[in-house]
């Protein structure tokens, strides 16, 4: 992390700054869920705003519009919520490239920030089209990436734009790296990884990496069922459930007790993926009890993953965890030791 360019090292006076944020939140009946994702960029926005004349535009994707302009995926829906969270007036721009953005930047008053329309309304983003990247960059002097959750993607608004203008890591992105590095490099022992959720293909690399580094790997959820059915070869450090609720929709009582004992004795705990089909009670029991045990422990605790964080948020327990990662797929990739193109793009190097 030492060799990436950080916002603290840049000068943003009178600069036009494009900030990649992660506003890919669930919106249910017009209400924004996952507000912590909107909050994540606040420190970076405050930091940049404190530099005289800096003009900030926030850019993000929302959902999967696949290159089409679809109202249900418009970032305009987040304007009010973002104004409250960031404590600033936000000017929405109905596109993320072109003359409209240029005009809005010129007209921006001090204290205001721009919110650009969904970058995935253009196909060029996911295709990492170089012409599109150039268009994203042309209205700006510098790029700041504060969206850890997309750093595993080679996309225009993540990597492409950083080839055209100088790119810096935002404060949230740095916070993510610091905390994730902290649980993978020389954690305090006993260290326990709890892995659950839906698909073994996505979780197996993580289980295998933790087999090398951690004391215990507790596996639940459908991932465990699949490992059992496929007779996946795992180290003796991996503990699979030995009893279940109906149809293996949740881990069983004895397994919960065993997992809780291990959790209570751990110094570091990382958790990704629910222990059962938690959306359908009573199959939320395993997830609930494991989460309670994590919270009661004195360990350094780190949680990430779409559904895992959803459980935390629904129960109002976000501030009981040492660090909550905004990365689902990105966190899995980073913890599995894979190269992250979005972070590579911020490495210190001579740029145009
Ligand atoms: P995360 O987003 O936190 O990484 P995943 O996406 O891997 O988690 O998995 C979450 C999904 O896994 C949930 O929708 C949950 O219902 C499902 N799930 C977990 N365990 C089971 C199970 N035993 N049977 C059926 N579905 C399960
Ligand atoms: Mg998920």
Summarize the structure.
The protein has 352 residues and is an alpha/beta fold.
Describe it.
The chain has 352 residues and is an alpha/beta fold. It folds into two domains: 164 residues, Rossmann fold; 149 residues, Phosphoglycerate kinase, N-terminal domain (Rossmann fold, 3-Layer(aba) Sandwich). It is built from 15 helices and 14 strands. Strands 5-6-4-1-7-8 form a six-stranded parallel beta sheet, sandwiched between helices. A six-stranded parallel beta sheet has the order 11-10-9-12-13-14, sandwiched between helices. Helix 6 packs across helix 7, helix 9 runs parallel beside helix 14 and helix 11 packs parallel to helix 12. The longest helix has 14 residues. The two termini are 22 Å apart. Bound molecules: adenosine-5'-diphosphate and magnesium ion. Adenosine-5'-diphosphate binds next to helix 10 and helix 13.
Ordered list of secondary-structure elements with their pairings:
Layout lengths: L15 E5 L6 E2 L2 E2 L2 H5 L2 H8 L5 E5 L19 H8 L2 E5 L5 H9 L4 E5 L7 H4 L2 H9 L3 E4 L10 H9 L1 E4 L1 H14 L6 E5 L4 H14 L2 E4 L1 H9 L8 E2 L13 H12 L3 E5 L12 H12 L3 E4 L2 H9 L8 E2 L4 H7 L5 H4 L8
Parallel strand pairs: 1-4, 1-7, 4-6, 5-6, 7-8, 9-10, 9-12, 10-11, 12-13, 13-14
Antiparallel strand pairs: 2-3
The chain binds adenosine-5'-diphosphate and magnesium ion.
What's the CATH H-level superfamily name of the largest domain? Phosphoglycerate kinase, N-terminal domain
**What percent of the residues sit in helical stretches (DSSP H or I)?**
25-40%
Q: How many distinct domains?
A: 2
Outline the biggest β-sheet: 6 strands, parallel
* Extended strand count: 14
Side-by-side strand order of the widest sheet: 5-6-4-1-7-8
Approximately what portion of the residues adopt beta-strand conformation? 15-25%
State the separation between the terminal residues, measured CA to CA: 22 Å
Task: Determine and state the CATH class of the largest domain.
Answer: Alpha Beta
Multimeric status of the protein: single chain
Bound molecules: adenosine-5'-diphosphate, magnesium ion
Give me the secondary-structure category: alpha/beta
Let me know the average pLDDT.
96
Stretches with pLDDT under 50, minimum 5 residues? none
Corresponding CATH architecture of the largest domain: 3-Layer(aba) Sandwich
Question: Could you tell me the radius of gyration in angstroms?
Answer: 21 Å
CATH topology of the largest domain: Rossmann fold
What is the helix tally? 15
């Amino acid at each position: 992390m030492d060799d990436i360019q950080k916002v603290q090292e840049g000068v943003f006076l009178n600069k036009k700054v494009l900030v990649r944020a992660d506003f890919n939140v669930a919106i249910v009946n017009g209400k924004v869920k996952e507000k912590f994702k909107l909050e994540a960029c606040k420190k970076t926005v405050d930091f940049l705003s404190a530099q005289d004349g800096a003009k900030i535009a926030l850019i993000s994707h929302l959902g999967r519009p696949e290159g089409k302009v679809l109202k249900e995926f418009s970032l305009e829906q987040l304007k009010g919520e973002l104004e409250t969270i960031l404590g600033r007036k936000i000017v929405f721009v109905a596109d993320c490239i072109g003359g409209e953005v240029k005009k809005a930047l010129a007209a921006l008053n001090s204290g205001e920030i721009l919110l650009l329309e969904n970058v995935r309304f253009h196909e060029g983003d996911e295709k990492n089209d170089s012409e599109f990247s150039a268009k994203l960059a042309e209205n700006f002097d510098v790029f700041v990436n504060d969206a850890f959750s997309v750093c595993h993607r080679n996309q225009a608004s993540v990597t492409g734009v950083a080839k055209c203008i100088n790119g810096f890591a935002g404060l949230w992105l740095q916070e993510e790296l610091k905390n994730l590095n902290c649980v993978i490099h020389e954690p305090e022992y006993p260290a326990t990884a709890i892995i659950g959720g839906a698909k073994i293909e996505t979780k197996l690399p993580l289980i295998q990496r933790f087999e090398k580094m951690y004391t215990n790997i507790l596996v639940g959820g459908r991932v465990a069922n699949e490992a059992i059915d496929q007779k996946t070869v795992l180290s003796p450090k991996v503990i699979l459930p030995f009893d279940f609720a109906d149809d293996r929709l949740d881990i069983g009582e004895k397994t919960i007790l065993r997992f809780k004992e291990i959790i209570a004795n751990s110094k570091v705990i990382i958790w990704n993926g629910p222990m059962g089909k938690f959306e359908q009670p009573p199959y939320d029991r395993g997830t609930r009890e494991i989460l309670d045990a994590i919270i009661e422990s004195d360990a350094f605790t780190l949680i990430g993953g779409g559904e895992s964080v959803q459980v935390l948020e629904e129960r109002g327990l976000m501030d009981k965890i040492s660090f909550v990662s905004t990365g689902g797929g990105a966190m899995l990739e980073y913890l599995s030791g894979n190269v992250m193109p979005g972070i590579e793009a911020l490495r210190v190097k001579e740029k145009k």
